[in-house]
């Protein structure tokens, strides 16, 4: 009788269990995906000669010297700033509840004066004046100044 203990390495290894087969629908999706990838790769390979031909043509073309500055200036979609008159018409209101200026993110103090936009959003006078000198709309809701 063999009384020798087996070491860890001498332990018999369990036989691997056969893996369950994937469902037929999964195999069909796998094959469809692999076919699509193969077709995409073949399509890319067929485009390589076209790209090489383009590289031969493009370097011989004359460089463009278009000045884009006047075109950009005339087609700008940035709205003009608010008028000084509309900025001066903004009423001063007293803050009655804690909130913060959405421009500088500093909290208003109760009973502090603030400027109120027609959309009822409130800002520090300096903050909204500077904003409206660049933009003609409310920083929060984009209400356009009259």
TrEMBL record:
Keywords: Metal-binding, Transferase, Ubl conjugation pathway, Zinc, Zinc-finger. Residues 101-142 form the RING-type domain. Its EC number is 2.3.2.27. The keyword Zinc-finger applies. The keyword Transferase applies. It is an enzyme of class 2 (transferase). It catalyses: S-ubiquitinyl-[E2 ubiquitin-conjugating enzyme]-L-cysteine + [acceptor protein]-L-lysine = [E2 ubiquitin-conjugating enzyme]-L-cysteine + N(6)-ubiquitinyl-[acceptor protein]-L-lysine. Residues 1-26, 38-84 are annotated as: Disordered. One of its GO terms (cellular component) is cytoplasm. GO terms for biological process: protein ubiquitination. InterPro entries: Znf_RING, Znf_RING/FYVE/PHD. Residues 14-25 have a biased composition (Pro residues). One of its GO terms (molecular function) is zinc ion binding. Residues 63-77 have a biased composition (Polar residues). This is RING-type E3 ubiquitin transferase. It comes from Solanum tuberosum (Potato).
């Amino acid at each position: 009788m063999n009384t020798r203990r087996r070491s860890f390495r001498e332990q018999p290894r369990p036989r691997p269990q056969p893996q369950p087969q994937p469902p037929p629908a999964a195999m069909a999706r796998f094959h469809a995906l692999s076919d699509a990838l193969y077709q995409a790769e073949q399509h890319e390979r067929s485009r390589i000669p076209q790209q090489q031909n383009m590289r031969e043509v493009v370097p011989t073309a004359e460089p463009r010297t278009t000045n884009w500055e006047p075109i950009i200036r005339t087609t700008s979609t940035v709205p003009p700033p608010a008028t000084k008159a509309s900025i001066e018409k903004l009423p001063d209101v007293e803050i009655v509840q804690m909130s913060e200026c959405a421009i500088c993110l500093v909290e208003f103090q109760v009973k502090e004066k603030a400027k109120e936009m027609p959309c009822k959003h409130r800002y520090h006078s300096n903050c909204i004046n500077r904003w409206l000198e660049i933009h003609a709309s409310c920083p929060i809701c984009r209400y356009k100044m009259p």
